[in-house]
Amino acid sequence: MSEEPHSNTRRRFVRASLASLGLVAVASPALAASDLIGTLLARSPPAPASNATAAIVAAAAGLERAGGRVAHRDVVGVADFGRHSRLPRLHLVEMAGGRVASLLVAHGRGSDPEHTGWLTRFSNAAGSDATSEGHYLTGEYYVGAHGRSMRLAGLDSTNCNAEPRGIVVHAAWYVGPEIIQAHGMLGRSEGCFAVSPSDLSTVLAHLGPGRLLVATKL
Questions:
Q1: Which residues on neighbouring strands pair with residue 114, listed in sequence order?
Q2: Which site from 9, 14, 66, 154 is most exposed, i.e. has the minimal number of CB atoms within 10 Å?
């Protein structure tokens, strides 16, 4: 008997995970998650199977933890800061289909003071310039010092200072394949989720206001 394709196995796994947690994926009328994830997967490689499965589990558990605070539960972002910054580690998880697409994202300089590309510590402290671990609710879009950006609200004691610290999603010149080719790692933010300028529109479209973003080490 031939083995079942991994993508089908993963879909069955995520459906079972969601059912066991009592979660139902609810799509926002403004977002066709399947179309967006499909487009992203068509131009970038899928996440490794082990990372994708771990991201799905983290996304489902995060939705259960956040409860009714998350209005749109179709797509969840999971930033796996256990991976080196040269690797795609911002996982966009399509909850209904169990598909995962991954993009580059930088961590804070206070989390990697020696600039090795590895996040060595999280911090919620003001002035730490570090990445904070925890669950975030995505907020409104705005145009600021880094151009088009998206506000974040920390939902946990480990990231409750996100708003006063100005931790947001924005694009940065120091995130992209060319930076990795030149330096072997991304640059560092001041704790924000900095993505490639070429990926910003995709990230904002997937994780528009009222969704969940999880920062963790898988």
A1: none
A2: 9
